Amino acid sequence: MSCREFCLSCPRLSLRSLTAVTCTVWLAAYGLFTLCENSMILSAAIFITLLGLLGYLHFVKIDQETLLIIDSLGIQMTSSYASGKESTTFIEMGKVKDIVINEAIYMSAKPRLDCLIEVYRSCQEILAHQKATSTSP
């Protein structure tokens, strides 16, 4: 039996960027408040900021991604979000024909291209091993 696990951890949420976004939203709301003199604008800004942060932490900000491939069982992909939520998908090996890595490559891409190549090659080796053992008598 052959297996590999790949784990990618992302940097934690930056307090500096969180503070910058919050201050920008609140300063814009204060500017609108001074023009309109409507206190609902300030309340809405606080509410929108809190909802936006919670949504970002729960649905967007991924802290860790894991790929576990076991030649006789299948492939398990797990995403752990900043809010603590985890999303796991399992695909039986019999349903796997090939593996495609769907990532955009930028100059500062995370994970780096060399890491993606290593993951791809390792997955292809395990798939080839699984196909060889399943076709032999």
From TrEMBL:
Domain Phosphatidylinositol N-acetylglucosaminyltransferase subunit H conserved: residue ranges = 66-107
Asked if the Swiss-Prot or TrEMBL record annotates the protein with the keyword tRNA-binding, the reply is no
Please name the InterPro entries in this protein's record.
PIG-H (IPR044215), PIGH-H_dom (IPR019328)
Recorded GO cellular component terms are: glycosylphosphatidylinositol-N-acetylglucosaminyltransferase (GPI-GnT) complex
Keywords, A to Z? Membrane, Transmembrane, Transmembrane helix
> Might you name a Gene Ontology BP term for this protein?
GPI anchor biosynthetic process
Pathway named in the protein's UniProt entry: Glycolipid biosynthesis; glycosylphosphatidylinositol-anchor biosynthesis
Q: Where are the transmembrane segments?
A: 13-33, 39-59
User: Which superkingdom?
Assistant: Eukaryota
Under Pfam families, the record lists:
PIG-H
PANTHER family given in the database record: PHOSPHATIDYLINOSITOL N-ACETYLGLUCOSAMINYLTRANSFERASE SUBUNIT H (PTHR15231:SF1)
Q: Which family does it belong to?
A: Belongs to the PIGH family.
Full protein name? Phosphatidylinositol glycan anchor biosynthesis class H
